[in-house]
Amino acid sequence: RNYPGLAGFFASGLLSASLSTVSSWLNAIGGMLYKDIMEVYFPNVQYSDSTEFNIIRAVVIILGIASVLPIFIVEKMGTLFQLGRSVFGTIMGSAMALFSLGMFFPRVNTKGAVTGAITSFFLSAWIVINAQYY
């Protein structure tokens, strides 16, 4: 049988469930980042409740935007397998460079290793993203 409106009812239920999950995730991550960063690195600074609320709100907005931006990259990537390979190569290439640096250059300090790993990650990501566009 064909029930009018059933497909819309199902779609609205599905979208509201996913929206609820995403909003809970964003609020939890925003509060957790505030607790873990602000209270650990700035323990002597006392903020009012409204300032804390505004900081958490800004974190949630930034995370929301950062969650949506990869859509524009993913649509250019093609298949899910290719996307997985590209992400895996970007992350593991940086990790392999970090381990190789530690094995072959024992005088490297933490600051240099972290800087090299971050630089390697962003350079690899830049190469992968540009390879998809051109």
Automatic annotation (TrEMBL):
Primary localization class, coarse: membrane
One MF term in the entry's GO annotations: symporter activity
Transmembrane annotation, as ranges: 6-34, 55-74, 86-105, 112-133
GO cellular component terms, semicolon-separated: plasma membrane
Native species: Cuerna arida
Protein name: Sodium/solute symporter
Pfam families: SSF
Membrane topology: Multi-pass membrane protein
Record family assignment: Belongs to the sodium:solute symporter (SSF) (TC 2.A.21) family.
InterPro entries: Na/Glc_symporter_sf, Na/solute_symporter, Sodium:Solute_Symporter_SSF
GO biological process: sodium ion transport
Keyword Chaperone: no
Subcellular location: Cell membrane
Keywords in alphabetical order: Cell membrane, Ion transport, Membrane, Sodium, Sodium transport, Transmembrane, Transmembrane helix, Transport
The keyword Transport is annotated on this UniProt entry: yes
